[in-house]
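Q: Hi! First time doing this. I have a protein sequence and I read that you can turn it into a structure. Is that right? Here it is:
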Amino acid sequence: MKVLAINGSPNGTAGNTEVLVRAFLEGASEAGATTDSIYLNEKTIHHCIGCFSCWTKTPGVCVHDDDMPEILEQVKTADVLVYAMPLYIYTMPGLMKDFVDRCLPFAHAAIVKRGDHYGHPTRWEERGGTSVLISNAGFPELHHFDGLKRTFELLHAAPEAVLAGTICCGAGPLLRIPGMEADVRWYLDAVRQAGRDVITSGQFAPETQATLDRPLAPDPGAYAEMVNAYWEGIGVEMPAAAKTAPTFSPTVGAALGDPLPPPAGRETMADLVAGMPLAFSAETAGDLAAVIQFDVADETPGAYFVTIEGGRCTAYAGTHSSPALTIHTPADVWLKISRGELSGTTAFMGKQFSITGDMNILLKLGSLFSAE
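A: Yes, that's right. Below is the predicted 3D structure, encoded as structure tokens:
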């Protein structure tokens, strides 16, 4: 059995779509299929011009001299066709739309009843008719895919056409964030299972589809805050409703606490915060001037902060009057993050800790304190 993936991402092998495609093809290969991919960003495919020459003057052959005829020959011999793409404005990107439009030579001009509706009969019977939809989006909620899924349901409404299942992944950027591999593994495992399901039974098992329909980002608000902070951090002007930083501009000023002694180990938050100056990267900080406050409810005294100014970092016990960022966290959560046992992104979106203040500084912690 041959599985052919048509990857319509403008980013090709470097996109989030490719992460999903590879997992699906791995599963299909494990079930005994041969697999291949076509990357539309590497091909020349002209727009359909609506001349209908492929129905009249040269039946089954388009007037354009480009890469599409070669692609159609591969499509004709595929038992399973995978349409893979990012979501663009609630539907498919231009690369995929051109591909779909240019499949018109597959159809006859005639309009006949096919099942419960009228459509064009297929010119070639070589195509097995089984397809899979793979897509991902920057939005966290799955309803954004409704229009795209409806399009593919209509494309496969004829009796001989089968849409075996849909893989529509919201919060797609999480698939490629370093350190998130363990946290998205459950989803990619389900994608692999979907590949196996299609080869062994012709469609996704209900339990596989149910898993794939679970959101990758269960808290859309936390995910949106993280994404907005990223764009803001690289200089994109944010509207007031999306700003992640506080409206005030905190200055370091005088520390309102006692300097922490050198760390005795890494067993407590006091030790961890005390060790942050040792892991501080002045080069990364540049001209950053800020206070990072830790509010640790289950540890005594539980209030610690570090000041960053002039390329120096100093750790204190106590509460600062105007921190740029306050991290509210149980001790064990932040200790696990510092040891690499827990992804900070996953912990934040799972509400294992919360913040007030500047999300941009939170996103920079890994580079500011490389050993933490």
